[in-house]
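tool_call: predict_structure(chain=1)
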Amino acid sequence: MPLAALQYCDSRASTIEFWSVSVGRLLVERGEFAQATEWFEKSLALQPTHALYNGIGILHQTLNDQEKAISFFEKALEMEPENPEVLNNLAMESWMQGEGERALGDFMRAHELARQSGDAFQAAATLLNVGDVLMRLGRFEEAERDLEESLVQLRGVGADSMAATGSTSSS
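tool_result:
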């Protein structure tokens, strides 16, 4: 990808952020990790954003480099501390490092932030993570409550999505 294209978008902050993150994530999904790393580094040099730091964290998460992933998720949160997606990613890495209580706290905070923002899917997904961690920590009654509630919320998100698009299912 040419650097000139990034420079063209430089004056359009939201455009460059969206484009840079999208291209980087596509490269990660295609398994082109060296290219993704180079792409994210060039993008970050032009305009550091929480989304780019999150994208680089996801890259390192994919490469199983948990320490680097955590570092980049923390940088993203420094820029946008109320971002439930980034906090959810950080919580996942904390869990992978064996920090169950920290992960639980971060998942719970991510759920609350997603709920407050009105992002029903993110709220349901983070509540599912809360329930999963509670179950793994042996807190079964709490886990059951949160897992059941997350399923109810996810069903609602699916119904809302179908209603918004006019989709119907055939029986």
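agent: The radius of gyration is 18 Å. Proceeding to next step.
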